[in-house]
Design goal:
Chain lengths: ~110, ~220
């Protein structure tokens, strides 16, 4: 719900900056690691957006898979089952490349 | 029409968290974000910690709670400064709440600040509050499946504390599986097994805290 509120605040600000009267679609990138449920996010957003510029807007959520790079052998890979060990050399030094995203990519608005 | 935004939803919180971190760094205060589900023993751990350390360092506590002051009352009985933040139903503390709470504390007189977050394994992991380290408490009675169900909070934790190990004989908790999953999520992190009821394992926790506070105080 807090995330839905943050999204709505950003959408309202961007809409105001562009002099938009109606937002029809909000595209989000959500990393797998955040474990956010698109359904609860959509539900929360719809509840909060009533009576605002984003009333009825669709939340389009793209889930970004969790990937990492080994700091030791340099290989890049999908992190399965949240195991932060390099599948190539077993190193524990794994940096997250993607999967922690939580961002608004773009808005569809009525002209 | 399509408007490109490319904006991180948590940016605002991150900016305030950086400000909190700088305020604490200026006073060489080591700050902990204490996380875990409701009933895992966060407040009990705090009570044990205060009792063990209050004569060797200056502690202060910020208590996050949905509606009540029950935890803050428990802490205040221990004779350390304690600020209550009621989130009014909000499921986590954010950096702005902590920033405001700092105004009510004497930052010149604190070595270790412990912020007890709202009991929840999901949202608090996303909201940095300017802490030096996150510590996640998992109690035996919650089950060994939780680390993989709520990976971020364990992946982000510098220390994971397995609490209530005195109850191990009465549960089907699979310690080996829990350790494997937690270490898989965060191989470099510290994992401590304790019982706040019997005191078992707490000495290692207190040692870690003393070490961290020492490092922070000697930082240039």
């Amino acid at each position: 719900m807090a995330i839905a509120q943050e999204i709505l605040e950003i959408v309202q600000r961007i809409a105001a900056e562009h002099g938009t009267a109606k937002v029809t679609r909000v595209s989000l990138l959500v990393g797998q690691m955040t474990r956010l449920e698109p359904e609860s996010l959509t539900f929360g957003f719809a509840a909060l957006a009533g009576g605002t510029v984003a009333e009825g807007a669709e939340l389009a959520v793209t889930i970004v898979p969790l990937t990492g790079r080994c700091n030791d052998c340099g290989q890049e890979f999908v992190i399965e089952q949240f195991r932060f060990l390099c599948p190539f050399c077993e190193s524990a030094g794994v940096a997250i490349l993607s999967g922690r995203e939580l961002s608004i990519e773009h808005l569809e608005v009525d002209e | 029409m399509n408007i490109k935004v490319m904006e991180n939803i948590l940016d605002k919180n991150e900016q305030i968290a950086a400000n909190v971190k700088a305020r604490l760094a200026a006073k060489r205060i080591f700050a902990l974000n204490l996380l875990g589900s409701p009933g895992c023993g966060k407040t009990a751990l705090l009570e044990c910690t205060i009792a063990a350390l209050k004569d060797t360092m200056r502690l202060a506590v910020i208590e996050g709670d949905l509606f009540t002051a029950k935890d803050a009352e428990r802490i205040a009985r221990q004779g350390v400064p304690c600020i209550q933040i009621n989130t009014g139903g909000g499921c986590h503390l954010d950096a702005n709440m902590v920033n405001s709470a700092l105004d009510s504390l004497d930052l010149e007189a604190i070595d270790l600040l412990i912020v007890e977050n709202v009991g929840n394994l999901v949202c608090p992991a996303e909201f940095n509050i300017g802490e030096d380290a996150k510590v996640t408490v998992l109690s035996i009675t919650e089950g060994e499946d939780k680390p993989l169900k709520y990976p971020l909070i364990f992946q982000q934790a510098s220390v994971t504390i397995l609490n209530k190990i005195d109850l191990l004989p009465y549960t089907t908790f699979d310690m080996a599986a829990a350790v494997k999953d937690i270490q898989g999520l965060n191989p470099g992190a510290k994992l401590l097994s304790v019982s706040c009821r019997t005191g078992e394992g707490l000495a290692l926790w207190h040692e870690w805290l003393k070490e961290q506070v020492g490092i922070k105080q000697n930082k240039e």
